Amino acid sequence: MQERYLTVHQTRRREPTGYEDLLGDSIERAFASGIADLAALVAHLNRTGPGFPGGGAWTEEGYQAEVARLAAEC
């Protein structure tokens, strides 16, 4: 019997966009540098990018809405 497992991209419907790759990389760098709260993560995104979709600055509410939107697309 073959062992069942979940591959990293098994549930992905499409390849990530360039924006999604940049956002994920920036979030990973934030976590690696010890950032662990939303306010600090939003500040990190505003310093390092990528920019908030449609312009303007990242906010806690905007970040939460954007992550929810991206999650719904997956």
Automatic annotation (TrEMBL):
Q: Which domain of life is it from?
A: Bacteria
**InterPro entries per record:** HTH_62 (IPR046789)
Entry-linked Pfam families: HTH_62 (PF20552)
Domain spans labelled Recombinase-like: 1-72
What is the name of this protein? Recombinase-like domain-containing protein
Q: Which organism is it from?
A: Pseudoduganella aquatica
Tell me the classification of the organism that encodes this protein. Bacteria, Pseudomonadati, Pseudomonadota, Betaproteobacteria, Burkholderiales
